[in-house]
Amino acid sequence: MGGNKILDHELEDLNNLLHTCELQEIRWTGAYFSWTNKTIWSRIDRALTNAYWFETSDFTLTHYLTNGLSDHTPMLIDTLAHQSPNLNSNSVTCGLNKDHFADLRAQQDKGRRELSNIQQALQHDQRNKNLLQEEKTARDRYVSIFSSSISLIQQ
After folding, report:
1. The dihedral formed by the CA atoms of 37, 41, 42 and 46, expressed in degrees to the nearest 10
2. Cβ atoms within 10 A of the Cβ of 62, count?
């Protein structure tokens, strides 16, 4: 959306590759457009798999998240058979994070949610100038929070 129309012959090599390698796109949810420069919106990022994958992981779903600070949308691949790693955290570090950075973490979470909500709205109304400005402001605020956290860590 917003760019030049892609012609069938421009996708011929990709389609031949997908057919030859017997690849197909994984079922997905979330944002439709996976890349934007705020003028052009495109679905260029995709998760592909083959028949062997489906035999070993019968349920796979790609979640397209909001793009946050990137121009690309992160993708989270989910399978029913996935296992969580056993994380063995250092208790001193956990205590430091809990005691000294809890408010900063809350600010980061709030900033991320705000940016994510605006970016979700932009997925449905890409040319809305108010949303584009709100997204820029939210992005700047989110970056500022991270800059503050880096300054605190370096002290």
Report:
1. 80
2. 19
Distances (CA, A) of 21 to 51, 119, 151: 10, 34, 48
Q: What pTM was estimated for this model as a whole? A: 0.58
Mapping DSSP onto H, E and C, the string for 66-84 reads CCCCCCECCEEEEECCCCC
| pLDDT tens, position by position, 69-83 | 899 999 999 886 544
Distance from C-alpha of 119 to C-alpha of 68, rounded to nearest angstrom: 8
User: Count of alpha carbons within 13 Å of 75, Cβ hemisphere only?
Assistant: 20
Distance CA 10, CA 25 (A): 19
Reference 60, options 44, 74, 48; nearest CA is 48
Q: What is the pLDDT of residues 114-139, one digit of tens each?
A: 999 999 998 889 889 999 999 999 98
